[in-house]
Amino acid sequence: MPKRKSTEVGKSPSSATKRQKTASSVETKSKKKSPRKITTPRKSASINTTSPKEVVKKKASPKKSASTRKTSSKAAKGKKTSAKTDDDDDDETDGKVSSSKQKKTYPKLVDPATNKETVGQIKYSAKEPTRNKKGELVFPDFPEFHPNMTPKEVLQAGSFGGTYFRPIYSSVTGKQYKDEAFLELPKDWTEGLNIKKKVTSSKYDEAVNTYKVKCGGSLEMWEESGWINKQDPYGWFQWYCRFYRGRRSADDERQVGRWLRCAGPTGRWKNNLIMKCYRGGAQYNDPNISPVVRQTLQHWGYRLTEDDYQAKVKQLKRKRVV
User: Which regions are flagged for Basic residues bias (predicted)?
Assistant: First the structure.
């Protein structure tokens, strides 16, 4: 009897097919049972390949380059105001002193080239100033210079403790001065005043002053600081008396600059007083608010007005400074 051909070592084709189906089924089930990985969409390959430290660095603000740092440093220095250099009467900081686009600079110290004594009789070439609607003095050749007190008004109000035109020795000129400077003044400027007590006294009397306080530094300190020009050995107020009457000199620009830094639109003492009045809830002319500053400003030919006060407060509010 002929032998049968076997398929797989004694196994029928049908059983092999069944095993394949079973294996396939098991594989499918195992895939279903295995936990699925939750993945988020990849934004870019660069993010997935960046370490956590690098990601933190990317979030942080980038460091400035050396050139950028130098530029920003220079810009910061440019914004700073200059150091406070002057005395109690003339403690100033540079500010915007001209309405022109290009800021005009004013020297603080005496120029050796123009540091000369007045020889002979003083020449008064310019006309005396007029007043504008705000009561400010107008000097056509120096439109930025607008004090609101004349030299006569400063003296009549009570200033300098009565000592401004006292006899002095000037270390700048090396000379003694007795009554020359006082006798130079127009007589009506000191009319009605006790001259020995209120103009030429050698002893400072704060009771003479409008606000009954003492202020200002000594003549010696001004001389040592380099603020006194030989042509005006008594100082700024002597220059102002002569300038008001019409004298013009090479030192005018420097002296106007000193006034601007003290009592001008951005003047230190003027704005110091405005801020004190505002923060103290006081009137602009309250004599109890900073009498020393008020007396100082008076020595520089300025008295705070309501117009100036309101204009400055409005400006500060707009800038949200107050």
Answer: 30-40
